[in-house]
Design a protein that fits this description.
466 residues, alpha+beta, Cytochrome Bc1 Complex, Chain A, domain 1, six-stranded mixed beta sheet, 18 helices
């Protein structure tokens, strides 16, 4: 054997450079002659352009007895125009390499377009046609209604969706739109026809009350001309001033069991309503909620998943339902604050007991500086990755439009998160999730979980049919 030592030449180990400064992109705001508000954001290198159209057609504007008409209208926008029938319209989109989606939610209807920058003009023309002159043919609307009716039984069978419906019904009065399923019920959807869809469109869809967000690389584009030729041709009446009635919610501590005989798991959804993004507590609430249940290392997961093995994961979150500026609307917005997860049927009682222990310990001892620091790093440090795509930026800007927030809100939010201290985050999350003011929905086998849950004493227990 040779005694010659083998030698290797190693390349120098790479060293990290200085982190580049990053800020959430600031859009440029303008208004077209037809009244359409446009937010544009030039993102060099983003060759797939994202367009978000926010239409002021909220769910609470749906006519009585026609819950779901906003959803059907949104889906029908791409089912033919005055220039193309449904198949031709889909083929034209495909030739552009574009995707077009639309959905309705409490703030309004959103239409989303993604297309290569080189074909933006053509895709904007198709989008403009869908907004300007949708055909709403009887046959296509009937098909969409039937599709929606077919979806409803599947949603009711889904424990997470069923829990969400039950929680909304518990929190809000029956005459408030937020208490009812976003996309309607079998009874209301069955009443929808092409005439009611067109009536809703004519009442609420117009450029003067809409906003277009366009994000991507505009280097080789004449965006002004493209917008003028396409969305600029859309006409309609003046914007209508909306009213925002005050909404009350009943978060008296109680438990509702949606009975699913034989279920091997229990779906948990524990919630109440709280401050929206206009409230100064929002950054602290986001930070504290993240520490409570925003990631695998959060308190809820650490106890229920890592220590006890009750679940694959539990999350705490805040979801804005209606966000309005109280200075102008005279009322505050509403966000849903919730804890969600699923556990094995036999450990439903112990899992709930431990969840309440986590909340009590949080109130008594507070968050730690390490928890706060980890949350800031995760929320602020990964923001550049979260907003790598044009679609992510456009979606967030459109959210700000719907929620009547300033264009620089997201950028300032990260600075506020970084400035929020441990004590402030603790106070916000304890206020957001008080143990005695939470409505608990359990979708599971009532015969197996009712008595253990009653023994916890976390509120009146009621069983309803699944």
């Amino acid at each position: 054997m040779s005694d010659t030592a083998a030698t290797m030449t190693f390349h120098p180990q790479p060293k990290p450079g200085l982190a580049k400064p990053w800020a959430f992109p600031a859009p440029e705001r303008a208004t077209l002659p037809n009244g359409l508000t446009v937010l544009r954001c030039h993102r060099p290198g983003q060759q797939v352009v994202a367009v978000e159209i926010s239409l002021d057609a909220p769910l609470d504007a749906e006519p009585a007895g026609l819950d779901g008409v906003a959803t059907i209208m949104a889906r029908a926008l791409s089912e033919g125009t005055d220039k193309h029938d449904a198949e031709e319209f889909a083929a034209e989109l495909e030739r552009c390499g574009a995707t077009l989606d639309a959905h309705a939610d409490h703030p309004g209807v959103r239409v989303s377009l993604e297309v290569p920058a080189s074909r933006l003009h053509k895709a904007l023309s198709l989008l403009a046609d869908a907004l300007r002159a949708p055909a709403f043919p009887d046959g296509e609307v009937e098909r969409l209604v039937q599709n929606r009716l077919d979806e409803i039984p599947h949603e009711l069978a889904n424990p997470a969706r069923r829990a969400s419906m039950a929680l909304s019904k518990e929190l809000f009065p029956a005459d408030v739109r937020m208490s009812r399923p976003r996309q309607g019920t079998e009874e209301t959807v069955a009443r929808i026809d092409a005439a009611s869809v067109r009536a809703f469109y004519e009442a609420h869809v117009r450029p003067a009350s809409a906003t277009a967000v366009v994000v991507g690389d505009f280097t080789d584009l004449d965006l002004d001309q493209a917008l003028a030729d396409t969305l600029g041709s859309w006409t309609g009446g003046p914007a209508r001033k909306r009213s925002y009635p005050a909404i009350t919610a009943d978060d008296t501590g109680r438990v509702v069991i949606v009975d699913r005989p034989g279920a091997v798991q229990t779906q948990l959804l524990i919630g109440r309503v709280g401050a929206d993004r206009h409230d100064r507590v929002w950054p602290a609430q986001v930070l504290g909620t993240y520490c409570l249940g925003g990631t695998l290392t959060s308190r809820l997961d650490r106890v229920l998943r890592e220590e006890k093995g009750y679940t694959y994961g539990v999350r705490a979150f805040g979801q804005v339902l209606r966000s309005v500026d109280p200075a102008t609307a005279g009322v505050s917005g509403i966000a849903m604050l919730a804890i969600s997860g699923s556990v094995a049927t036999e450990v439903t009682g112990p899992a709930l007991e431990d969840a309440w222990k986590v909340l009590r310990t949080l109130a008594e001892e507070g968050l730690t500086d390490d928890e706060r620091e980890a949350a800031v790093q995760n929320l602020v440090g990964v923001a550049p990755l979260r907003f790598e795509t044009a679609a992510a930026v456009a979606n967030t800007l459109a959210d700000q439009v719907e929620q009547q927030l300033p264009d620089d809100f997201q950028g300032k939010l990260y600075a506020r998160l970084a400035e929020t201290g441990t004590v402030e985050a603790t106070a916000a999350v304890v206020s957001a999730f008080p143990g005695d003011r939470l409505v608990t929905v359990l979708v599971g086998d009532a015969s197996a979980i009712e008595e253990p849950v009653r023994a916890l004493g976390i509120g009146e227990v009621r069983v309803v049919s699944g």
